[in-house]
Structure formats: structure tokens, C-alpha cells
Design brief:
mainly alpha; coenzyme A diphosphatase activity; two-stranded antiparallel ribbon; about 200 residues; Fat storage-inducing transmembrane protein 2 isoform X4; transmembrane
């Protein structure tokens, strides 16, 4: 429990601050632009992490919204119930997760449609020999072709979106700590565990 307390203390000291919530979006945009520029100017060699089937991509990135949703649901419920004591206000606050789910779903669908409508099927990865008969990415891959379209990084969108949701929901801990509603009890330990787990 001492390790959990130390982790919670460090994260509380950074994520709860208003300055972090204000500047984090700009820091994420700058890191994405810098990463894109670096990749364009100096392509990285093939590695395990660049493979789409690596463990981090398959089990964490592709299901990042599920992880975020499952961890924020009890955190928002516990924290807001202890702040307000009203189930109606907790349910209203939980609608942020429904809105977040809708944004995730619509965003990924839009990105897939953009890639579909701007893409073509090629016989080789060198973009030679357009195969006009394939009208969708799935059909193209099924026939052994290579689909090339304007691919907006859904992973960058999803991870950025999840990080911003987590940081925004952590802001309520400032109120919890100021009002000292949570004393040394089992509930406090739950809050510490839920606080550390999304991060």
C-alpha cells in the first residue's frame, strides 16, 4: 500500500493542477507534429513496436477506450458520490462517458471513411498496377492487394482523447482533497487504486 500511496501522491501533484489541463492538449499536438516530422525526415527501421501485431498495439491501443471507460466508470461514480451524495448528479456526470463513447465511435468511423474514399487498391506496396476492380479496403486485402489512402492516425486520436478524458476527470480530486471528505478508510484505498490505474 505504501507504493500505491507514493504513486497516487506523485500523480495527484501533477494531474490535478489546472495548468496541466490547460497545456496538455498543446503538448500532445506538439509531440504529434514533432513525431510526424521526425518520421518523415528520418524513417525508423523496422522493429517489434512498428509491427501492428505487437502486444501493446493489440491489447492496449486498439482497446484504449474500453480500458479508459472501465477505469473511469467506477472512479467517477465513487468520487462524485462522495462529493455530492446524490445519485442523480452522479448519473449526470457519468453521461460524459456516453458522450466520449459517441465521439470515439463517430471519430473512428469518419477516419475509416476518409481512408476508403481517398484510397485505391494496388498490386504491390510500391504503388504499381492499380487494381480498379476492388472498391473497398477489405476486398483489396482479401485478394492480396495493398490499399493506399489518406490514413488519419486513429491511434493518435484515440490515445490523445483518452489522455485528455483521464486528466479532465482527475480534476475532481482537487475538491476531494480540499474538503477532506475521504479520510483514512477503505474508500480512500479504493480511490487511490482507481486514481493510479487509469494513469
Amino acid at each position: 500500500m505504501e507504493h500505491l500511496e507514493r504513486c497516487a501522491w506523485v500523480l495527484r501533484g501533477t494531474l490535478v493542477r489546472a495548468a496541466v489541463r490547460r497545456y496538455l492538449p498543446w503538448a500532445l499536438v506538439a509531440s504529434m507534429l514533432a513525431g510526424s516530422l521526425l518520421k518523415e525526415l528520418s524513417p525508423l527501421p523496422e522493429s517489434y513496436l512498428s509491427n501492428k501485431r505487437n502486444v501493446l498495439n493489440v491489447y492496449f491501443v486498439k482497446v484504449a477506450w474500453a480500458w479508459t471507460f472501465c477505469l473511469l466508470l467506477p472512479f467517477i461514480t465513487l468520487t462524485n458520490y462522495h462529493l455530492t451524495g446524490k445519485a442523480g448528479l452522479v448519473l449526470r456526470r457519468l453521461t460524459t462517458l456516453l458522450v466520449g463513447t459517441a465521439i470515439w465511435y463517430v471519430g473512428t468511423a469518419v477516419f475509416a471513411n476518409i481512408e476508403h474514399y481517398t484510397g485505391s487498391c494496388y498490386q504491390s506496396p510500391a504503388l504499381e498496377g492499380v487494381r480498379k476492380e476492388h472498391q473497398s479496403k477489405r476486398q483489396c486485402h482479401g485478394e492480396g492487394g495493398f490499399w493506399h489512402g489518406f490514413d488519419i492516425s486513429g491511434h493518435s486520436f484515440l490515445l490523445t482523447f483518452c489522455a485528455l478524458m483521464i486528466v479532465e476527470e482527475m480534476a475532481v480530486l482537487h475538491e476531494v482533497l480540499n474538503k477532506r471528505l475521504l479520510r483514512a478508510s477503505v474508500i480512500t484505498e479504493y480511490h487511490r487504486a482507481w486514481f493510479v490505474s487509469p494513469c
